[in-house]
UniProtKB/TrEMBL annotation:
MF-aspect GO terms: dolichyl-phosphate beta-D-mannosyltransferase activity
Organism annotation: Mucilaginibacter lappiensis
Record domain Glycosyltransferase 2-like: where: 10-174
GO CC annotations on file: plasma membrane
Keywords: Glycosyltransferase, Membrane, Transferase, Transmembrane, Transmembrane helix
Bilayer-crossing regions: 233-255, 267-292
Protein name per UniProt: Dolichol-phosphate mannosyltransferase
EC annotation from Swiss-Prot or TrEMBL: 2.4.1.83
Amino acid sequence: MTFVLKKKVSVIIPSYNEEKNIGFLIEQINETLSNTNYDYELIFVDDGSSDNTLNEIKFNAQLHANVFYIELSKNFGKDHALKAGIGMAQGDAVITMDADMQHPPHLILKMLKYWENGYDIIYTYRQNSNPHAKAYQKATSKLFYKGINMLSDIKLENGTADFRLMDEKVVKQLKLIDEYEIFFRGIIKWAGYKQIGIPYTPSKRHTGEASYSFFKLVKLAVGSIMAFSARPLYLVTGIGLFFSAMAILYIPYVLFSYFAGYAVSGWASVLATVAFFGGLQLLVLGIIGVYVGKIFMQSKHRPNYIIRSTNVMSIKNVNNDFIGV
């Protein structure tokens, strides 16, 4: 009699103040995967929640043998929480998804079919604008993807989500990446491999409100663009060269006006010119300063996250990430 080992799927779910969504999400994933020919584990990463999220995860971990938790020591951000979960995952395939039920669990079955057909990465992107998002969220989302596609070296579909499946060999390479500010949506595109995108329509949040504010979205956009390209530096260099050329072309006019005897001095035009170029210089220095700041933080080699507690048995110190249990 021949025994065939089932393939294992690890589902990584970063969670921040999602106490009322945990039990419902586990129920939905179990309904989706329980009748398949896969073993699966659910790894929740509590990213410094201020509500009862961690206790809710621990309660469900006692009820379900395949539910695990990772408690981070504070809020490190979604991408770092994903990295913590990926570092613990032991599956033949790893799926990442949000805890708010906007990523429909039934789409996992479609991902698994593509995976079995040889695709290494199956990612998702919003087919249409999110009908449940606020106006400013829709506007900033469009600006984000336009900006990153224009100014960085990667191309992302509008609405690319953190709902994806990755083969084990992809995950092994992701565990080796050691970046201070990691942006998984960009890293996945950059990594290559055989990829395919699946369009989806986001579901309404089961409970709660989105935790991303306008300023957090702006910070994410700036950090993501600068993480994948030096193009902003080239852009400001081009602007500087343009205005330098314009200044050189202005010299003949100044000389002609002087020798012709009708040069008129005006404090308003001088003040406006100084203010304009002063602002331009500050902008250029600001962009350079952000890059220098990123180099400074990367040189410290601080861990991306610190684990306070976990019930995952196979604890590994991956990429010098400090694990304090």
